[in-house]
Write a structure and sequence with these properties.
94 residues
Length: 94
């Protein structure tokens, strides 16, 4: 497998296209805070982080899949032993 992360400019363009705040982008990608999201979209190399493939896949799946499909995937994750609820921020999980 080969993966190259999107550039900060591409991530910022996605943010603008979706019309979301940094906090909302963080939630979409499963990142802790808007401040953490900004590190992925930073053009300043010292502050920059590369977007992991799993994080990008998660966010794009959330944008493309139906709510029912996502719930089926979450159910499989729970069946495997995970505790997860995408609608609750922070530590609280279903």
């Amino acid at each position: 497998m080969h993966y190259e992360p999107p550039t900060p400019a591409k991530l910022d363009a996605l943010k603008q296209e979706l019309g979301l705040s940094s906090s909302q982008m963080a939630e979409l990608f499963g990142i802790s805070t808007g401040r953490a999201w900004r590190r992925y979209a930073s053009e300043v190399e010292a502050n920059q982080r590369d977007m992991g493939m799993h994080m990008l896949f998660f966010a794009m799946a959330r944008l493309e899949l139906s709510a029912e499909a996502i719930e089926r995937i979450l159910a499989r994750m729970r069946q495997a032993g995970a505790t997860i609820d995408l609608d609750i921020a922070g530590d609280s999980e279903q």
